[in-house]
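#lab-general

N.A. 3:47 PM
ok so I finally got the sequence cleaned up, no stray characters, all 295 residues accounted for. can someone with queue access submit it? mine expired

B.Y. 3:52 PM
send it over

N.A. 3:53 PM
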Amino acid sequence: MFRDLKYFFLLSRPLNVLISFVSFGVACFIAFYKSGFGFLEDMSFWVTAFCITTIAATGYWINDVYDFRIDRINKPNHTIVNAILSVKKVLTAYFFVTFVVMGISITYFVFIKEDYYQIVFINLLSIILLFVYASYLKHISVVGNLLIAFLVALVIILAGYLYNINHELMYTIAFAFQITLLREITKDIEDIKGDLQFNLQTLPIQIGIRATKKVLVVLYVFFLISCYMPFLINYLNEHKFLWTYLGLSFLLVQLPVVYNLIMLHKSFQPGDFSIQARYLKYIIITGIVTILYLD
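B.Y. 4:20 PM
back already:
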């Protein structure tokens, strides 16, 4: 029992789930007009956070169910499904937990809180899309990458539905979408060896690693330009210079991105891209810190 729980915990990618929780918390702080942490006393925050983190965790479960053969090639020492936990056991847990999450979501946001149907809809949509992604869409070039980036952006959008959608939150949504898209394409290059053996149609397989690197360069440049948009828009609208934001963005986001670009130029083998994918995960965290100074 405890052994299974341990491996279900590892299967859930706890660091990624923690990042989802922190991202949602920061988004709620921004949507709450940065007027303090009063949202932490709101039960709606905790119910939504529970749903987000649980849906994210179960999304990894179903993804590994469909990918355990590929993972044996790409990550032979980290395969859990069909190596430690049976496919049947993981699927049973997946359907049970997702059913419980939707039950809690409907009970709270329809019958207790009332008039928060959009949050129930987003939770249900996220579960369905993660299942479709794992079973089909991740095999299709770019579409799967865009879907995951969209789902990450939905975490931020939920904060807007709970409290308020403001300019800072819109910047956060754009940041989350872009950095996730970069990471997903980078991971596709990292996993190309196993994906090739199972005839997946990811972007690196369709156009090659060299051409995919060019796509990443364009996305990185566009991302770097977008880092200056809040600064420029705020100046044009309110004649205020967000120097603190710009300084932190330069140090904590833009310099690491430039470093990743340099590494990208020197990377040729799939294994070279695993470090870049890891760095992009940390840039998500530093980017969240930077966005807090958008005022």
